[in-house]
User: What shape does this take?
Amino acid sequence: MSTVVQPCARCGARWTVRGAPMHWCPRCRGVLLSPAPVDAPPERRNYRWVARVPGRRPREGRAARPAARAATGTPRYAEMPRWGLRDVPRPAPAGPRNPLARFTDRLPGLLTATAVLFGVAALAELGRYVIVLRNQSKLIPPALLFFSDATVYLSAGLAALCALGGAVGAAGWLVRARAAAYGQAGRADPRSVRTLLCGSLIPVVNLLWPGVFLTELVRRLGGDARVLRAVRIWWGVWILNGAMVFAALCFRFADSLQAQADGVIFTCYTDLVAAVVAVLTLGVVRLCEGRDLRGRVRAPKRWLPATGPVEPVIEPVHPVGESAERAADSAVGNDVGTEPASAPSAERQQEEVMAK
Assistant: This one.
């Protein structure tokens, strides 16, 4: 009759099973394998033996220590290690090239130029308003008027052309981004390219639908709250800019000089809002691509819990009670040498005895 034993996974000792099986080796505290007959064939075991190099067997009672490393200097790094803390973005799948790719590839440059030109147009309108105020009391030289008009018309025309190119590029980017987002899930974009282009480029209609298209895109990308908030801010400023453009056009048909002057300063405000819209559009595009406004890849922040207790650097100030202050005063008085009024001195007691 074979004896049932439990081999140790650390030191290799075999322990006879008497009653309930054990879990830990009494010699080295290693894990004991499941009970099996001492002469059981390999197919009846749930473990296997591993051959060790002679002379490398650990001593009884403790595990083998690794070889001591050579003494080296303190390890240092030229930059902060980032292994395991940086998520490499997935490469965008190559999709069919749409006819708007020429504008889409130049979208950041077009939006930047649009913001700059609208800022210049706002300064030109402000200069014209200053000339109108000056013209109430003095005559303006014709050369200055010609320069002001040329600056206003040239900056406004170039800004409008760049804004049109940026709108076309943004529409092409929207088509490409939605196709890539739905393609990652193995689906096709439920909205056709014609619907996306018409909803993004037709005036008045494009005040509503671009926000809807962008919201669907952000939710498909994961629904980041920060990106959704940026889309809503852009949407509100975009609608405000459309209303201001309509009001500025209405000022052009005014008859009175005061209304025309108000139209000039209102056009200045409209150009400033248009520049803000261009910057916000670039910001939304960058956020949807996982980048910041300057085009750098945003590294996600990972917060780690602090396991140690909080140790105050400066000891907090504890309020001292009135009784403690009195005790401190009495202690200070005893140190100086003062005596309580109720305790009579030795000389006074002697004088009373002699008087009796």
